[in-house]
Every structure is written in C-alpha cells, then in structure tokens.
C-alpha cells in the first residue's frame, strides 16, 4: 500500500472539522473533560483534525497557543 493510500484510509476514519475554529472549540471542550488534544491541518484532505496531545499540561497549553 502506498503512503498516500495509507494516509487517505487513516484520514477517512477521523472526524473532519471544516474550520480551525471549529476544531479548536472541540479541543477546548474535550480539554474540560480531561482529554488532552490539539488540532492540526491535514495535508491529505485539507480539513482540520484532532490528535492526542503529549506532555505536561503547560506544554499542551503552549501547543494550543502556538497553533496558527
């Protein structure tokens, strides 16, 4: 399986957010529930996805703050 096909298959399983603001709003809601996530712009579909954040709460907060 090519790398592109693998990424497409993975991408289809993920929730796609149409805007960065929508994805960040969901990430903040999950944060309040204790689920640490950050957003990223998908190079495959052009939409926004969430991924689990790694690190201390401060480093995760910085990841959220540093996102464009």
TrEMBL record:
Q: Origin, by domain of life?
A: Bacteria
User: In what ranges is there compositional bias, type Basic residues?
Assistant: 1-16
- Positions of region (Disordered): 1-23
Q: What name does this protein carry?
A: Uncharacterized protein
Per the UniProt record, the source organism is Desulfuromonas thiophila
The top of its lineage is: Bacteria, Pseudomonadati, Thermodesulfobacteriota, Desulfuromonadia, Desulfuromonadales
């Amino acid at each position: 399986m090519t790398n592109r096909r693998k990424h497409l298959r993975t991408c289809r399983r993920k929730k796609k957010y149409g805007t960065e603001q929508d994805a960040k709003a969901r990430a903040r809601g999950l944060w309040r529930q204790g689920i640490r996530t950050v957003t990223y712009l998908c190079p495959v579909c052009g939409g926004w996805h969430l991924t689990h954040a790694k690190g201390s709460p401060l480093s995760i907060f910085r990841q959220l703050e540093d996102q464009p």
